[in-house]
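Reopening this one. Same input as before:
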Amino acid sequence: MITRRDWLTGAAAITGYSLLPMPLSATPADMQKAMRQAFGDSPISTGRVALTLPALAENGNSVRLSVAVDSPMTEKDHVEFIQLFAEANPLPDIARFELVALSGRAEIETRIRLAAEQRVVAVAGMNDGSLWSGSASIVVTIAACLEGLI
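Same output, byte for byte:
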């Protein structure tokens, strides 16, 4: 039988554990793991993907980012998706954008939250199964993504 004292002790332990600091940023290894989960062992070639973001962001809560992929966007040769990864965010897999040949251009523009100085990687998946990537580095003076995992 569980006594009131045992129950309160257990509740206090669980509450105390939940207050312990958790890591709020990933590492480059975490980003590589997220990329392996997304693409398996498929080779990712460098090139064809131009990732543009500022070298310095004063506030990481809303960083403008654009990605353009060199592709004719025809039925025979087009980009199927663009996926974004950030090596220091609590969750390194940021976003995935699905495209079709009728999209016209293989370009996306968005705003993302970033936590600290890091490298951001964009991976484009082509309809022939090939994967291409581009990356850019950024310094963030006021980090975002500080709540997230607690």
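So the earlier flakiness isn't reproducible anymore. For the record, Confidence is low (pLDDT under 50) at residues 17-23.
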